[in-house]
Structures are given as C-alpha cells and as structure tokens.
C-alpha cells in the first residue's frame, strides 16, 4: 500500500489590453482598455494505492483543479442591447450602451476517482477501469448573444459530472491485437445561474435594482457531451524477412458516439436564450483503416479516415435570430453548422528516437 499527498501553490497575474476599432459592434472606437487580475490558487492531490501482486493495482484519488479567471474585453454596442437586457444585467451603461460583465472569476473542481489496473492470462489480457465524480464550482462557460452574434464568458455555478471508463487490450495471438475502450459521461448543472451579480429567487434572476430576468442556465440542464464513447480496434502484424525483419501491419478502427437526448440549456424554456430548434449531439460513427510498416524507429503507413463519409451535425447555431427588433433587417431562419472531416486518405511517416 502506498499513499501520496501533495499540493501545488501558484501565483497568477493576468494583464489584458484591448483596443476598440470601428464597426457596428463597438461603442467607443479607438479606446484602449487595460485590465488586470491576480490570484493565488492551491491545488492539493492525494492518492492511495494497493498492489496485492504484480498483475493488479487498485487506487483511490482526490485532486483539485483550477482555471484562472480573465477578462471579457471591450464593451458592446447598441446592437447587443436587447441580449444584455434579456439577461437582466443592469450594468451601468457606457455612452448609453449596456455592458456585459467585464471580468469572470476563476473556477475550480474536485475530482474523486476509484480505479483498477489488472492483467490476466499471463498478460495476454489487460484491463484498466475507473469511475469518477467531479464537482465543478463557478464553471466558466461561453454565453452566446443571439441578436448580435457575440459571446462572453460567465461563471455558471456548480456542475456535477459522473462517469467511468474501461480500456481492454487482448492479445489472443502473437500477431493479433484487439482493443476496446468505452467511456460514459453524465454532466449537469446543480443550480440555476444568473448573469452578473443577479441572484436566483427560485423562479427568476433579480438584481440589486429589482430588475428580473430569466437565468442563463437552470438546475438540471446538461452540458454538451455524448453519453457513450465506444472505440473498437484490431491490428494484425507480421515480421517480413524480405524487409530485414520489418513489421508490416494492418489496423482497423471503429468509433461510436451516442446521441445526447438530455436537455441542454438552449432547450430549456426556463432560460433567457431558449431555442428549441437547436439539437444536442447526434449519433456519430467513424470507420478508419491503416496499412503500414515499422522498422528502425520508422512507421510509414497509408491511412483512411471516415471511410463511410459520415456527416453528423456536431454543432448548430442560428446566424441571426428569427425575430428582429423593428426597423432592422427582415427575420430569417438561417443557421450555420459544423460536422466532421469528410472521407480522407493519406500517407504518414513518423520516426521515434
């Protein structure tokens, strides 16, 4: 049994300079803004491990993570005023224009993990597995303003993430390797979060002036993440005397990301920027293959990625909102989206020394 306890102490200074240039989204062209912040985080870690024999190792761990805060940058222009008002920020206006929060604070998390590393069948079968719980406080998240297309970073309260993974490697023959990796993730907000200094009263966000607005996220909303990530692979390799003992190999990989059906913040009608036309992550599949040879530290191979040429819609957002304020351009339903790289075939060469 071994026990390890340690901590890291840091001192972080952040200085940001922004200069506003002209354009519809700038309220004060030519202005130079300088912002600074300083923090002294402490991030401890403790691990307790037990190795009963050469083929087994079990452990529990607890560790703290930290991410420094920062600056959101220059102020907004009037085109973003309706978005800022929808969040009930109520910040002092600059030249008559509402502002978003100037700074965002650091966030931190505690991660608790239980795991095992085991070897069976004289090391022909190797299994690594773990389960974890993460409690994230003040999580930093982008807030997209749909009326003007800009975004800022806000601290959105507490998040809980539960999950686990298993990694299996099986060598049934000297020339054959089989792999299976499966990971599960379930991450959701534990509380409703408001913009700026507003406080949630159980239904709405209320600021010091009594202004009420809907929250950015509500308790129970999920973070964007595929619940299951499953990866299968197999590799056949054989040494060729004709190539001086170089190892020729063929490998195939197949990955599946399951669809996310849990409610995201944009799909929750309790939130300020509710838009039920924006979906979660879809079912995604990718098939890949590789043919190559390894010798004297070199690995030269012909590869194919996304061989079935799948085009899952991994991200979707509105270009402009469906209903615009009077006097602006006519409303539309234009969106922009991102997918994965299409079918790709190529040649790679690497050298390890």
Overall description:
This protein has 353 residues and is mostly beta strands. The chain has one helix and 23 strands. The protein has one helix spanning 81-86, and strands spanning 2-9, 12-19, 32-39, 42-53, 56-67, 70-71, 103-104, 107-120, 125-137, 140-144, 151-155, 159-173, 176-189, 199-200, 205-206, 212-213, 228-240, 246-257, 284-295, 298-305, 315-318, 335-338, 344-351. The strands form six sheets. It has a twelve-stranded antiparallel beta sheet with strand order 1-4-5-8-9-12-13-17-18-19-20-23, with no helix packed on it. The longest helix is centred in the N-terminal third of the chain and has 6 residues, at 81-86. The chain is globular.
Element pattern in H and E: EEEEEEHEEEEEEEEEEEEEEEEE
Main beta-sheet strand count, sense and barrel state: 12 strands, antiparallel
Roughly how many Å apart are the termini?
35 Å
β content, as a range? over 45%
Please summarize what this structure is.
This protein is 2% helix and 52% strand. It has one helix at 81-86, and strands at 2-9, 12-19, 32-39, 42-53, 56-67, 70-71, 103-104, 107-120, 125-137, 140-144, 151-155, 159-173, 176-189, 199-200, 205-206, 212-213, 228-240, 246-257, 284-295, 298-305, 315-318, 335-338, 344-351. Strand 15 and strand 16 (212-213) form a beta hairpin.
């Amino acid at each position: 049994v071994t026990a390890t306890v340690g901590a890291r102490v840091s001192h972080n200074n952040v200085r940001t300079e922004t200069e506003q240039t002209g354009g519809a989204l700038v309220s004060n062209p030519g202005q130079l803004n300088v912002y600074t912040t300083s923090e002294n985080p402490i991030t401890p870690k403790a691990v307790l491990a037990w190795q009963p024999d050469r083929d087994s190792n079990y452990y529990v761990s607890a560790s703290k993570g930290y991410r420094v805060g920062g600056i959101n940058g220059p102020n907004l222009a009037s085109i973003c005023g309706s978005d800022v008002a929808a969040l009930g920020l109520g910040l002092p206006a600059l030249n008559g224009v509402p502002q978003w929060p100037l700074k965002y604070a650091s966030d931190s998390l505690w991660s608790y993990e239980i795991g095992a590393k085991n070897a069976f069948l004289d090391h022909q079968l190797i299994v690594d597995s773990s389960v974890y719980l993460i409690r994230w406080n003040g999580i930093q998240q982008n807030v997209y303003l749909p009326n003007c297309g800009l975004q800022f970073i806000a601290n959105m309260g507490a998040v809980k993430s539960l999950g686990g993974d298993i990694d299996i490697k099986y060598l049934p023959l000297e020339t054959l390797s089989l792999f299976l990796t499966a990971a599960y993730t379930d991450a959701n907000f534990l509380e409703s979060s408001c913009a700026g200094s507003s406080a949630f009263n159980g239904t709405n966000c209320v600021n010091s002036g009594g202004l009420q607005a809907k929250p950015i996220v509500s308790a129970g909303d999920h973070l964007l993440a595929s619940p299951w990530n499953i990866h299968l692979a197999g590799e056949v390799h054989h040494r060729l005397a004709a190539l001086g003992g170089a190892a020729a190999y063929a490998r195939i990989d197949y990955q599946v990301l399951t669809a996310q059906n849990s409610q995201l913040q944009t799909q929750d009608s309790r939130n300020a920027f509710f838009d039920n036309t924006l979906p979660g992550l879809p079912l995604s599949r990718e098939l890949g293959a590789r043919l190559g040879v390894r010798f004297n530290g070199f690995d030269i191979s012909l590869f194919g990625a996304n061989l079935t040429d799948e085009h899952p819609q991994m991200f979707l957002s509105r270009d402009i909102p469906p209903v615009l304020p009077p006097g602006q351009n006519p409303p539309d339903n234009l969106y922009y989206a991102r997918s994965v790289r299409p079918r790709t075939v190529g040649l790679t060469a690497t050298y390890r020394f």
